[in-house]
Specification:
Layout: H1 6-17, H2 21-40, E1 45-47, E2 51-58, E3 61-64, E4 71-74, E5 77-84, H3 86-92
Antiparallel strand pairs: 1-2, 2-5, 3-4
Length: about 100
């Protein structure tokens, strides 16, 4: 199964919305930039019927090198988390969407 790329998405916007190819690419870049900026500032991004992107903080902890068994400190960091909506989960699993309401 092929990977969907920015170019694929921009082409789909072009064919569905009727903007020029350049305008479609700019629109896609603007949407992605707004999502990125919101996540960078610590906000969550909810796309109804799709899911929620959020940033979670992981604290410092001790890990172990699987090869040597030596303990090493893992520094605190931010991780990006995606939580799919019930609608997206149902679509991926080929389930019926009748009567389903997005709980997020």
């Amino acid at each position: 199964m092929p990977t969907i790329t920015r170019a694929n998405l921009a082409e789909h916007i072009y064919s569905q919305v009727g903007l020029s190819r350049h305008e479609s690419a700019d629109l896609l870049e603007d949407v992605l930039e707004r999502i990125s900026a919101a996540l960078e500032s610590g906000e969550s991004v909810k796309l109804s019927g799709f899911g929620t992107f959020s940033v979670r903080q992981k604290g410092r902890r001790i890990g172990r090198n699987p090869k040597t068994g030596v303990e090493v400190p893992i520094l605190p960091r931010s991780v990006l988390v995606f939580r799919p909506s019930q609608i997206l989960k149902a679509q991926v699993n080929g389930e019926s969407l009748e009567g389903m309401v997005d709980e997020e």
